[in-house]
Automatic annotation (TrEMBL):
Domain of life of the organism encoding this protein: Bacteria
Protein name: Aldo/keto reductase
Active site as annotated: 55
Residue ranges of every copy of the NADP-dependent oxidoreductase domain listed in the record: 22-262
Family: Belongs to the aldo/keto reductase family.
Record-linked CDD domains: AKR_AKR5G1-3 (cd19157)
Organism: Evansella caseinilytica
MF term (GO), any: oxidoreductase activity, acting on the CH-OH group of donors, NAD or NADP as acceptor
Pfam families in the cross-refs: Aldo_ket_red
Amino acid sequence: MKSLSIESTVTLNNGVEMPWLGFGVFKVKEGDEVVNAVKAALDTGYRSIDTASYYENEQGVGQAMKESGVPRESIFLTTKVWNDQQGYDETLRAFEESRKKLNVNYLDLYLIHWPVTGKFKETWRAFERLYEEGSIRAIGVSNFHIHHLEELLKDVQVKPAVNQVEYHPLLTQKELHQYCKERGIQLEAWAPLTKGRMFDNAELLQLAEKYQKTPAQIILRWDLQNEVVTIPKSTTPSRIAENANIFDFELSDEDMEKISRFNRDSRIGRNPDDFV
């Protein structure tokens, strides 16, 4: 993994290339805030942008992409269908709304945001239609436990390419990660930096000193060496650049294991089984 760069990609199960490092925009306000943040990320070299209809900033993301001067085909764009948009016809409408707000002809990745009981299979049928039509280059899910994936996989024509879940040193989700690996589903991390909750951890600070990096950079590097796509978020240009500066060092196996032992099965967000 040492030879990775910000341009490096992982090949998804359908052959599509997805950057290992992306930029998330959860809770980044529509308008100047999201436009400036996304433009700063693209200027830094990020080529993967992750949004969602629920974030209510798709229009700003699209505007930033257009104003950045980076060719559309060079950007890997992800958005997600929200819970109250799920169902077959509803999802087709939601996709078109997102596409128009983003001002793009296609999406690189479309995700089911949460596994809504009784809805996500019909939502997936709509995803498969959009995928077969060429409107989406890859389709996937978010916040799916193993039992959700098992239920979905019973009937799919196209297997999910990605499962985006809460993933960080306090929630390593080893069983889910292994399950996805065995089935060719790429794990992707949201809230990789635990909203800063680990930045004063004594052991993590020691590792930061050892490698002459910040605690955030140590965590993001741990993600990548665990072969997990990661999408940190910031609105500060210097922090956006800092989060991308993780390709000039490599954590030892011993230090990787040390970070993994921080696991407490502790969530920052909701448990998918309790949320929907």
